[in-house]
Specification:
Blueprint: H1 9-36, H2 46-79, H3 85-91, H4 94-97, H5 100-111, H6 116-121, H7 134-159, H8 162-170, H9 175-203, H10 206-212, H11 221-232, H12 235-258, H13 281-309, H14 318-351, H15 354-365, H16 372-383, H17 393-430, H18 435-443, H19 448-463, H20 468-472, H21 480-489, H22 493-521
Subcellular location: Cell membrane
Protein name: Thiamine/thiamine pyrophosphate ABC transporter permease ThiP
Main location: membrane
Amino acid sequence: MARRAQPLGIATGLGIGAAALALTLALGTIAAVAWRAEPGGAGLGAADLAAIRFTLLQALASAALSTLLAVPVARALARRRFPGRGVLITLLGAPFILPVIVAVMGLLAVFGRSGLLSHALAPLGLGPVDIYGPFGVVLAHVFFNLPLATRLVLQGWLAIPAERFRLAAALGFGPAERFRHLERPMLREVLPGAFLVVFLICLTSFAVALTLGGGPRATTIELAIYQAFRFEFDLGRAAWLALIQVGVSITAALAAFAIAVPGAFGPGLDRPVAQIGPDGRGLRLQDTACLGLAALFLILPLAMVTLRGLPGLADLPASVYAAALRSIAVALGSAALTLALALPMAIAIDRLDGLAGRTIQAAGTLTIAASPLVMGTGLFILLFPLADPRLLALPVTATVNAAMSLPFALRALVPAVAEAERSHGRLADSLGMTGRARLRLMLLPRLRRPIGFTLGLSAALSMGDLGVIALFSDPGHATLPLQLYGLMAAYQMDSAAAAGLLLLVLSLGLFWIFDRGGRARAEP
């Protein structure tokens, strides 16, 4: 198919430049880490090998539990229609933009030594629950990733053509036959990908390990990198650990393609699946229990943060509000930079043929292979001979957060740009509309919704980040997540609860403002 006659030359050039910058941030920082690493891995010791082993084991356990628990929850959502179902499905996306440290506070309020569960077990003569260590790390990862795995598995269930279920009912299939012929093939296709996505996320979850891990039994690779920087300033050891982290992440990503199973079903007639199989009382009770427990697991920690944080909001020290302002500035800067990179890249991907477009898209998604801490390590190594990295803590944090948000931004913008050009591109060509006029009059009005989502997602993710800032910043330039971590470490739990509530409100508020703004101004 021939390309349009009036390409956006400037935007395409900017897209190529943005892709080059993203590639430099991803590969350049990894190259800096590789250059700094000592030959032969002399800097690694027994503790580092234990950190590598624990990282893999906790990621495997977290991914396995998240995907296995997601199956009954997704099945219940697929075969039930009830008031509030849409709200519950929306709630399943909330943990993705939830500040990690706020969720950890909520989990401590429920599962900690003085939490709700420990108080409930006390009359039975059972000791308090200890959430710190491997158990807490896995529990927090399941909290964050069970909703994601449920969404992925739910899409698999809804993709089974309704005609297959009607045929199964006509043939008198019972639950075992339906599972063997319909559900098991779908799960074989969906579960490996969901497992590896969760596994990748758990490999690079620094804030969870920082707050709930630590110690010889619960140190991850990223936590070991942080300790090598902050406490030992051993750049060689940190560099080797960063390279290992990148290698493990890339291996897991390649495995996701290697074990993919082809789809087991042909096309259907796009009819909704109103009910999967017979609807007995036992099945209704089972589905109700699954949905109720999942909702309780997700909502209760956030409710506890809200209840414990409200009384202390008025008494927060000025340093917390100063940190909140710094976090807002970083979040807004990160959101603006994300859009400045993603929008021209999305236009260039649509404009360029074949390999060139795929190369730009690959450059935009490559940042996910290098975790924020690895990217921060590389930037620290590059900046250290030139300036004090602590003075650049906030700009560097905003830049790394923008790079990490870029793959999600492209996921939202690339299809929207393609659809706008497909529906209105010929008309714009016939009117001689190019350059800024084409962007302002044809593209931007039709991209307000994905642009709003992109800005909101990037701002929310940056607002709650406790990764790069922990490497660079000092207490005088702390962001709100780092300030909150300091309050928790000092056992000022009342102030920490109030600061956590403030962080939660700001993160969700930024996402809502941008996303709502994009949807409100979008064309009907």
